[in-house]
Design brief:
Length: about 450
């Protein structure tokens, strides 16, 4: 048994001398979209962005889940050989009256064909619109990670790490993020493998346009895997290709510039309804040219078919308009009948007045005519009251129609906004809504406030 342990120890020593050094819990690109951008981005709005900046998860307002895979022979610190697998879930919630998103993620990393493995379980929270002012919104987030490393010989080590992050969104297109990963810089001792999870400081910015997304990320890492810390610069770009019914296609490109680990990246993605598939590839610019591959499958629950939703709303609107037109026509017919009856009653009142004047000398007849006249007057008053009620009802129906039309236009605007429509299109839609309903007598304050926000 002792001889066997010695042979295992010798094999591990030989592997450590002949292969790239294993590193502990480095900031690898998580997800094919991040890989296509060149690496992790602290300011890129992405479902998996919480691994690079815990505050980014707050922007996800629907339940999302998925899995990802990475095969690479390079880390941000230099050469390596690894396979990484992971899954995640984003769960929007409200806590203490504030909106946010709970994140749950797990990763398994295999270095050197089973010679060394790492496991990470992350629990996090990112706020949404926590601090909001005229200049924009600020959000914060944190991840608590449970880390475990094990060598092939059976030695293992566990620990915990804390990630903190913040993001500033001046508007709907720009984001500036800052994060500290592995803030407590935990140390691990797994037999002959001894190292610290590197403390990484990240600063990132991104800009989203109608069909383009641009990003830039800066990162500083402390020493790990027997190498001194390094600094990286990571620009990236994404272009969206819109189709009529087949969803969105994405093309991505990025550059990762760092000592011992520079690489050129590219990626593709396809998003349709509630699902998204992405692929990323990275080619090292130094050392052996062995491409890294990444694949991600994501599912979003709660997304709807926008075309079917619009069709349903249009059918409802047509039915409502038809019923309203019929009600207005019936009211108009009743109003015409009442007008005719009022004219007839007026003529009868005039006739009764004349007869009363002619029969003043006949007291008994006068008494009967007075009672009849009083009854006619009461009928006339009742008819006038009903006519006024009908006029009020028609006015109320027209006001309700205006409110309904405004609610439909407002829902259409919200659909455009949630679908990622450009600010110019949103602004034009709001201007049309405000112009159409500003003199209708209904409350359109939510559209006016939204238009003022866009104009700023």
């Amino acid at each position: 048994m002792l001889q066997r342990n010695n042979l295992t120890l010798a094999a591990l020593l030989l592997a450590a001398l002949t292969a790239p050094a294993a590193a502990f819990f480095e900031d690898l690109p998580v997800g094919a979209r991040q890989a296509g951008f060149g690496g992790q981005q602290a300011g890129l709005e992405d479902p998996l962005g919480f691994w690079a900046n815990p505050a980014l998860s707050g922007a996800s307002r629907k339940f999302e889940t998925g899995a990802h895979f990475l095969a690479s022979e390079r880390t941000p610190q230099g050469p390596a050989e690894l396979r990484a697998y992971g899954a995640w879930a984003l769960i929007p919630r409200m806590a203490y009256g504030k909106m946010g998103t709970f994140t749950l993620g797990g990763q398994y990393r295999d270095d050197g064909d089973g010679a060394f493995s790492q496991k990470t379980i992350s629990f996090g929270w990112g706020t949404w619109q926590l601090l909001r002012g005229d200049s924009g919104a600020v959000d914060f987030g944190a991840n608590l990670k449970i880390l475990s490393a094990a060598a092939d010989g059976g030695d293992s080590a566990s620990g915990a790490a804390l990630d903190l992050g913040g993001v500033f969104r001046p508007d709907g297109r720009h984001a500036v993020g800052f994060a500290l990963l592995n803030l407590n810089n935990p140390a691990f001792d797994a037999g002959i493998l001894k190292d610290k999870a590197p403390l990484t400081a990240r600063l990132g910015v991104s800009e989203r346009r109608e069909d383009y997304t641009l990003s830039l990320d800066l990162a500083k890492r402390t020493a790990s895997s027997g190498k001194k810390g390094n600094f990286s610069l990571n620009p990236g770009v994404e272009h969206a290709w819109r189709t009529e019914r087949a969803g969105l296609l994405f093309s991505r490109a990025g550059l990762f510039l760092a000592e011992r680990a520079s690489a050129l990246s590219a990626g593709l993605g396809w998003k349709h309804l509630a699902s998204e598939i992405s692929y990323g590839v990275s080619l090292p610019l130094t050392g052996a040219v062995v491409p890294a591959h990444s694949f991600t499958l994501a599912l979003r629950f709660g997304d709807r078919d926008i075309e079917a939703e619009y069709e349903r709303l249009i059918k409802q609107e047509i039915k409502y308009r038809k019923d309203l037109v019929e009600a207005l026509d019936e009211s108009a017919r009743r109003e015409a009948r009442l007008r005719d009856e009022m004219a007839s009653l007026k003529a009868e009142v005039d006739a009764l007045g004349a007869r009363l004047k002619d029969t003043q000398e006949q007291k008994a007849a006068v008494s009967g005519e007075k009672e009849r006249l009083a009854a006619v007057v009461r009928r006339q008053a009742a008819a006038e009251a009903e006519l006024k009620a009908l006029a009020d009802k028609r006015a109320a129906d027209k006001l309700n129609q205006a409110r309904y039309d405004f609610s439909l236009d407002w829902q259409g605007y919200l659909k455009l906004k949630s679908g990622g429509a450009p600010a110019d299109v949103l602004k034009a839609s709001l201007q049309r809504i405000v112009t159409q309903y500003q003199d209708s007598g209904i409350d359109i304050s939510q559209a006016t406030v939204e238009l003022q926000r866009l104009v700023r």
